[in-house]
Write a structure and sequence with these properties.
Layout (H helix, E strand, L loop, with lengths): L1 H56 L22 E4 L2 E4 L4 H10 L7 E6 L4 E3 L5 H19 L12 H8 L11 H12 L9 H13 L18 H8 L4 H11 L1
Antiparallel strand pairs: 1-2, 3-4
Helix pairs in contact: 3-4, 3-6, 5-6
Amino acid sequence: MSSYSEYVMSASSSMMNSVRDAATSATSSAATAAGQVASSVSGVCHGVASSAQQKLLSYKYEDRQLSYEDKPDYPETDSPVWMLGQQYSARYDLPELRELVTSRPWLSYRKEFPAIGESGLTSDQGWGCMLRCGQMVLAGALLDIKMGREWRWNKDSKEEEYLQVMEKFMDIKSAQYSIHQISLMGESLDKKPVGTWFGPNTVAQVLRKLCKFDPSDDIAVHVAMDNTLVISEVKQACIVDTTDNNDEEDESEK
């Protein structure tokens, strides 16, 4: 009887040892597989990052100039196309749609402009995207005010008012809404060093401030906060305070 008990105990011990060895082996295999997967993922990520870095470092501006003949492609669809509050058809209103798109100001990355302040930067590649977007929105609004919503640009456009608006956005410090003025004002208002990417709110606040120093006084910018547009605040932003000017005139008459 004792031999039988010993046999059962021995068999049970062997089974437990086998189970334990199997579990250990499975854990080891799982750890090895996880390590291989992690190593593979890390390698892929490293490869992608290296490739992106190389593309960024090797990035060069295109030598060719965009011509008036370079036109965007539009899908052949019966769905309406809305632009600036107007409805168009990409199938039947294509000439009008092309004219409208071509007439909107396009400001993008540039290089070899005069250095911005003490930063020494002569290009806004990689950080000026939102600043350029702000320029385009403001330039479009000024053109609508000066030229009217129905005005369309063409390669012979040399109207004085059109040129005056676009000169405000030249890449020189003296231009009212240049990349220089916007980036330096952002550094002053939001403590963002020149060469730092701006968010939409920062750009809007900077343009709002710069508009106040525009001697032509063509436009006022109101920044709606918390997704709420308060009409009375918009109207207030459009009111020109002439109190100081009247006081100066009174003093001069005395």
